[in-house]
Amino acid sequence: MLQVKDISFGYLKNPILQNINFEVNSGEHLSIIGESGSGKSTLLKLLYGEMDLNEGQIFWKDTEILGPKHNLVVGYDFMKYVAQEFDLMPFITVAENIGKHLSNFYPEEKQARIKELLDIVELTEFANIKVKLLSGGQKQRVALARALANEPEILLLDEPFSHIDNFKKQSLRRNLFNYLKDHHITCIVASHDKEDVLPYSDTMIVLDNHKIVANHTPKYLFENPETPLIASFFGEFNMIDDQIIYAHQIQVVEHSKLKATVKKCYFKGPYFLIEANLEGATIFFENKDCIEENKKVSLVIKP
Ligand code: ADP
Ligand code: MG
């Protein structure tokens, strides 16, 4: 189990994280979400022991994670970290980068392992290409494969799919997170993309104003968003009578007391997002079809 016990940290005098507490069981997946600058990357670096805590303690099982002040070499064998700025060896091939930390003692096993990892990140046909020739997204996939090479007990991922295009993202997420679950690897992901979080995370924590403001399952937080920040992570929403109402909760009906005037339609694929005026306030709701401008519609709010 990972235990984060009342940690605080700041760069110089600026507090970034204050009194952070959470736990992650072995094999579980936790997401860290929060606005840009809320301290997600900082928290991952602290979990990795890259910086010294101002207060508190971090444990993985019985081992205390210590920063550079107490630890000559940063990092631990049981933990791997893929930073937002992944650093690879540009002048050697994809396969060589992935196998960099694998033992040469059993060359056949090593090659089989590299092949398996190339398959997970869908880079088999790039095995012998030098990394400097790859796109940003391909490099990110090499960094992910390299982190898995010597299977860690716990994996820290900072915005792991940020450079990867949508063609590859969906299948890569499935490959990676299913692999981690199957191999009982604990995973902590910093992300601002709900697609990384909702289908795969057991728990998500929300950072805001130096603190954890929510710590629950994605499903619970989706259904009970306590703050606009949390709701905004999941999608378009409205504040109506001080209540958070998602755009998909509002439906057009034949008759109701709630009347709005349509202002604009946005095509979203499976539906249109409709911008409308409700008693002087702008609201958004989803509808299968576009609705013409200035049309009056009757709405109901579904629970
Ligand atoms: P996030 O990953 O959520 O976007 P970060 O952890 O990168 O947030 O940054 C949190 C805050 O700490 C930001 O205000 C950022 O400017 C600041 N920060 C990050 N790294 C450093 C650093 N090395 N020195 C000083 N301030 C930093
Ligand atoms: Mg970051």
From TrEMBL:
Alphabetized GO MF terms: ATP binding; ATP hydrolysis activity
Pfam families linked to this entry: ABC_tran
Keywords (A to Z) from UniProt: ATP-binding, Nucleotide-binding, Transport
PROSITE patterns the UniProt entry points to: ABC_TRANSPORTER_1 (PS00211), ABC_TRANSPORTER_2 (PS50893)
Domain ABC transporter span(s) in chain numbering: 2-234
SUPFAM superfamilies, alphabetized: P-loop containing nucleoside triphosphate hydrolases (SSF52540)
Keyword ATP-binding recorded: yes
InterPro entries tied to this protein: AAA+_ATPase (IPR003593), ABC_SmlMolc_Importer (IPR050093), ABC_transporter-like_ATP-bd (IPR003439), ABC_transporter-like_CS (IPR017871), P-loop_NTPase (IPR027417)
Domain of life of the native organism: Bacteria
Gene3D superfamilies, alphabetized: P-loop containing nucleotide triphosphate hydrolases
PANTHER family reported for this sequence: SPERMIDINE/PUTRESCINE IMPORT ATP-BINDING PROTEIN POTA, SPERMIDINE_PUTRESCINE IMPORT ATP-BINDING PROTEIN POTA
Protein name as it appears in the record: ABC transporter ATP-binding protein
